[in-house]
Write a structure and sequence with these properties.
The complex is a heterodimer. By secondary structure, chain A is of the alpha/beta class. Chain A has one domain: 3-Layer(aba) Sandwich (Rossmann fold). Helices cover 28% and strands 30% of the residues of chain A. Chain A contains 6 helices and 13 strands. A 9-stranded mixed beta sheet of chain A has the order 9-8-7-10-6-1-4-5-11, sandwiched between helices. Chain A has a two-stranded antiparallel sheet with strand order 2-3. In chain A, strand 8 and strand 9 form a beta hairpin. In chain A, helix 3 crosses helix 4. The radius of gyration of chain A is 21 Å and the shape is globular. The termini of chain A are far apart. Chain B is an alpha/beta fold. Chain B folds into 2 domains: 182 residues, Rossmann fold, CATH 3.40.50.620; 123 residues, Rossmann fold. Helix content of chain B is 28%, strand content 29%. Chain B is built from 9 helices and 18 strands. In chain B, helix 3 crosses helix 4 and helix 5 packs parallel to helix 9. The longest helix of chain B is centred in the N-terminal third of the chain and has 16 residues. Classes of the chains: A alpha/beta, B alpha/beta. At the A-B interface, helix 3, helix 4, strand 7, strand 9 and strand 12 of A face helix 4, strand 7, strand 8, strand 9 and strand 12 of B.
């Protein structure tokens, strides 16, 4: 089974986010980056499928040179090779433009499955996998919790709302967006890190695409509800809060 | 020209977010000065289409086909593609449901258009409409402009007040799409629920809820003590349950339970929208988080910016004293 895993590099979860001078994206100078967490779960699913069924796991990622760090991490965890679509970005591209670039990079690959996370932690469009499926003419399923390949089809367990689930059988090839947190993520071993250095990373330039949506402005949200911030040392704030619980909420 | 809102039903029941999307679509239609139409998609949906006609819309399309009895992305995409092409539509608006996330990006791609998903606000000026979306799980906002037509937009839960039925009596128009069973590539089985919930958080008066900020399972005792001294139920955001630190049945949010206690303590919870939709009905929200920009402070009545490992034990002591 040949599996492509599409991963994105995003600012680390605990980053202090500063808007750039143009006001259209982040000031990246002090940022550190990491693999988008939902994509890490897609990679884990792909690696486990390969361990069960054999085949190949190919990592696909678009972005500037720094993205190679995330690609190396995926290779160290066990992916076989990688495709890096090099593009300078300001981070604010719409999912359609990104999916176009990824689809172009996959010409000649003919995978059985493409896995990706259900959304990115930065833009949060949650669309790239679905748009990629449409551009490639593949079937797709989103928010997938379990993957069971059945020859020419794949059976997946999808999460619906309010604690409901549904099994769906899809024809292959297919794109699946994987729900986070289902399987335990592996760490790269020392041996894996060593091996990653010898694995193939194909670098290709990004097609130029026109964005159909663009960000005019990025800004800190204004608080719509006036929340009262209690200040002081822990003892002080605890005392203030107890007052509120006692006399306002009347629960003590 | 017109704006179209796609209402969502499952097995004959409305997804209530549909009417929030309808309200958002109405603001777009008014800004563009064009009529608003609604679509209901399914197999036997005449009754629902009639209900929809009581809302402030010009026309309701009952998009019906046997192959739409059960949702598939191929079936829904093809049916709505045909409906949109049959009229001149400037904007198509959806509720941001799990189902919409599954097919709306595909539908927009058919038109070579971007899908501006999960919108929390709409700004309009001189026939131009701009959308506000959240970035980084709500830490930043972005003002997004989409070019070309039709524009595709979905609306976040709770961002707009539901439209009200007014029984103005819009007309219902049947729309029969051409669907080819050979082109529907997914076979959905019956939806199911896993083991019955034994914990009903929806009735709890006090809830102490914990998130990523707790860092390790071994630290849970810190919040357990608070729950105990308050006589509160313990709950959590999704990552805590995913890690198996607390059972899934204690999860609050879009994929877990919806709660409305007298007081909700959000401890080390940043406040991603998926969590907020499950707890925003709480009468009082107390948030404790070390990040002053955490979106949870937007929803909180009382916020404490600080280290939960210092604040929570101090709170436990203060409550003990108050109860003594």
């Amino acid at each position: 089974m040949k599996i492509i895993v599409s991963v994105k590099q995003v600012p680390s979860r605990d980053s202090a986010l500063k808007v750039n001078a143009a006001g259209k994206w982040l000031d990246e100078s002090d940022l550190s980056f990491e693999m988008n967490e939902p994509d890490a779960y897609a990679l884990e699913e792909a690696l486990q499928l390969k361990e069960k069924l054999g085949g190949e796991v190919v990592v696909l990622s678009a972005g500037p040179e720094r993205v190679t760090q995330t690609i190396r991490e995926a290779l160290a965890k066990g992916a076989d090779r990688a495709i890096h679509v090099e593009r300078e970005d300001d981070g604010g591209q719409d999912a359609l433009a990104t999916a176009h670039i990824l689809a172009k990079a996959l010409e000649g690959e003919a995978p059985d499955l493409i896995l990706t996370g259900l959304q990115s932690d930065d833009l949060g469009y949650g669309q790239t996998g679905v748009v990629l499926a449409e551009l490639l003419g593949f079937a797709h399923a989103t928010i997938v919790m379990e993957v069971e390949p059945l020859g020419t089809t794949v059976r997946v367990k999808r999460e619906l709302e309010d604690g409901w689930f549904q099994n769906v059988v899809l024809s292959l090839p297919a794109v699946l967006t994987i729900q986070s947190g289902i399987k335990k993520l592996r760490y790269a071993t020392l041996m894996g890190i060593k091996k990653a250095k010898t694995k193939e990373v194909k670098t290709i330039p990004a097609e130029s695409t026109k964005s159909a949506a663009h960000i005019d402005k990025v800004y800190l949200p204004q608080r719509s509800k006036q929340s009262q911030v209690l200040t002081g040392d822990p003892k002080d704030v605890a005392k203030q809060l107890v007052e509120k619980l006692k006399f306002e909420a009347r629960v003590l | 020209m017109s704006v179209l809102v796609v209402l969502e039903q499952n097995a004959g029941k409305w997804n209530r977010m549909s009417f929030e999307a309808l309200a958002a679509a109405k603001t777009i239609a008014d800004a563009l000065n064009v009529p608003l139409n609604a679509a209901v998609v399914g197999s036997s949906i005449e009754a629902l289409a009639k209900e929809a006609a009581a809302y402030p819309v010009a026309k309701v399309f009952a998009v019906q086909h046997d192959l739409l009895a059960r949702y598939t992305p191929d079936g829904y995409t093809s049916a709505l593609e045909q409906l949109i092409k049959a009229s001149t539509t400037e904007a198509v608006v959806f509720p941001h449901t799990y189902q919409v996330r599954d097919y709306a990006p595909k539908l927009a791609t058919r038109f070579g258009q971007a899908f501006v998903s999960d919108v929390v606000d709409i700004k309009s000026e001189a026939r131009k409409v701009l959308f506000v979306r959240q970035l980084f799980q709500g830490k930043l906002n972005a003002l997004v402009e989409a070019t070309g037509e039709p524009q595709f937009v979905s609306v976040q839960a709770g961002a707009f007040r539901s439209a009200e039925a007014s029984s103005s009596g819009a007309s219902v128009e049947a729309f029969a799409p051409q669907l080819d069973p050979g082109k529907i590539r997914s076979k959905p089985e019956d939806p199911f629920r896993e083991a019955q919930r034994s914990v009903d958080l929806s009735a709890a008066e006090l809830i102490v809820s914990v998130g990523r900020g707790i860092k390790e399972k071994d630290n849970l005792h810190v919040v357990e003590e608070l729950a105990q001294v308050l006589g509160a139920e313990l709950a959590a955001s999704r990552p805590i349950c995913d890690n198996g630190w607390l059972p899934m049945e204690r999860q609050v949010g879009s994929s877990g339970q919806t709660v409305s206690p007298k007081v909700y303590f959000a401890i080390g919870i940043s406040g991603a929208i998926q969590h907020l939709v499950g707890m925003k009905g709480s009468k009082m929200v107390v948030a404790i988080n070390k990040d002053e920009n955490a979106p949870i402070f937007e929803t909180a009545d009382y916020g404490i910016v600080g280290d939960l490992f210092e604040v929570v034990p101090a709170l436990v002591e203060a409550i003990k004293k108050a109860k003594a």
